[in-house]
Specification:
With 242 residues, the chain is of the alpha/beta class. It has ten helices and ten strands. Helices cover 39% and strands 25% of the residues. The radius of gyration is 18 Å and the shape is globular. The model has no long low-confidence stretch (mean pLDDT 94). Bound molecules: adenosine-5'-diphosphate and magnesium ion.
């Protein structure tokens, strides 16, 4: 695969409890891809995602991000280049929307003017007005809160955005709206997205590539069209039936 931005090679991960979450997993993610990761609950999706920004360690194998072995990255530095979005409730409740979005920028050495400009840009992109920027997360709907989470993840202009079931707690209409927005953002911004989901339709419609996992192993990794046309085993065939 040409120019991978993330390379996971033969990674095995066992939790202290003895739980083997990943077994010799390999995944190459090309620059600019939108990879959706799907599989049954407990199959290792979150663990796989958290390998990429060093939030989860591993027993063996190798992870390379933006051309550098994870082991040689300063993790604080790396995480500033990787946005991270999880389900609702991940915002700081005592900070305003503006402060939430600016959080990473404020702990970097960006100038106030630069930060303000960036917040205006993100507010425009996500459709927030001044009043909403000054509100607290609890004043917003679930969908709006997720928009804040996305804006915060994009604030430092990351090259990679990781998302762990970001729309899982939203109602259908809000979810479809946000899916469309994120798809547009991916096309416009050209950054690499890796998204864990348990929604098949979401995995198929957003992914340029799809990784189907079962019991800590990647069953198939290909384009959605190829997976639909040619599921490589009976388990996948059953799994992708809607
Ligand atoms: P998924 O996101 O697909 O639901 P996870 O990656 O969260 O799966 O978990 C994979 C497996 O590892 C599961 O069996 C889960 O119980 C276990 N696991 C996850 N996190 C921990 C942890 N912090 N300590 C021990 N076991 C864990
Ligand atoms: Mg999970």
């Amino acid at each position: 695969m040409s120019n991978p931005v993330i390379e996971i090679i033969d990674v095995t991960k066992t939790y202290e409890s003895g739980n083997k979450a990943l077994a010799e997993v390999s995944l190459e993610i090309p620059q600019g891809a939108f990879v959706t990761i799907i599989g049954p609950s407990g199959c290792g999706k979150t663990t796989l995602l958290r390998l990429i920004n060093g939030m989860t360690g591993f027993d063996s194998g190798q992870v390379t991000v933006m051309g550098r072995n994870l082991k040689s990255w300063d993790l604080v530095h790396l995480r500033r280049k990787i946005g991270y979005v999880i389900q609702q409730g991940a915002l700081f409740p005592h900070l305003t929307v503006r402060q939430n979005i600016a959080f990473v920028l404020n702990i970097s050495d960006a100038k106030t003017q630069t930060i303000n400009n960036r917040i205006t840009e993100l507010a425009n992109m996500m459709g927030f007005d001044e009043r909403q920027l000054n509100a607290f997360p609890s004043d917003l709907s679930g969908g709006q809160q997720q928009r804040v989470g996305i804006a915060r993840a994009l604030a430092s202009q990351p090259q990679i955005v990781l998302m762990d079931e970001p729309f899982g707690a939203l109602d259908n209409i809000t979810r479809r709206n946000l899916q469309n927005e994120i798809k547009g953002m991916h096309q416009k911004l050209g950054i690499t997205f890796v998204m864990v989901t348990h929604d098949l339709q979401e995995a198929f419609s957003l992914g340029t590539h799809m990784a189907i996992i079962n019991k800590g192993k990647i069953e198939q990794y290909d384009t959605p069209v190829a997976i639909q046309k040619n599921p490589t085993n009976i388990w996948i065939k059953e799994f992708i039936k809607v």
